Amino acid sequence: MKVFQGKLVGTGLRFAVVASRFNDLVSSRLLEGVKDALLRHDVRHQDIDVCWVPGAWEIPLAAKEIALTGRYDAIVAVGAVIRGDTPHFDYVSAEVSKGVAYIGLNQRVPVAFGVLTCDNLEQALLRAGSKAGNKGAEAALAALEMADLLRNIRSERTEED
Ligand code: INI
Hints:
Elements lengths: L14 E6 L3 H16 L8 E6 L5 H11 L4 E9 L5 H20 L3 E8 L2 H6 L1 E3 L2 E2 H20 L7
The protein binds 5-nitro-6-ribityl-amino-2,4(1H,3H)-pyrimidinedione.
The site of 5-nitro-6-ribityl-amino-2,4(1H,3H)-pyrimidinedione (INI) has 16 residues, from strand 3 and helix 3.
């Protein structure tokens, strides 16, 4: 039996973060969470690039272009979609989640989903580095694990090796 697993070791891995400027108060905290988690797992500062987009809607296109460069082992998407008085929230949150998932599958690069979809700003801030943790940091760890897992699968490196 072969067991493939990813470890949380960032040595030699390159990451891109796509961050949406809309609700910047939240997304900048998520971005800090991503950077902190990656740096604490031995990713080098110069191996983390950041790409800002206007809003969550724009994340998938930027993530696709980044994936196409072939320069990154994983991408982390961060942003905050916060419900308002109209159905706008539903359209933006549906498209960003579908788009991010599609790009990962289509480009064969992990794209971790650190985009919050919340009913209000308070819920978002709780998940951006306060009581409910930092979902950016959680997404970064998922990206790290998946990058190592794919590296292992592609080189057939298993636990027994
Ligand atoms: N973009 C967000 O990232 N979060 C939001 O909460 C949001 N709301 O609610 O409007 C939002 N809208 C902008 C959208 O992502 C696009 O940037 C815009 O529609 C232009 O394409």
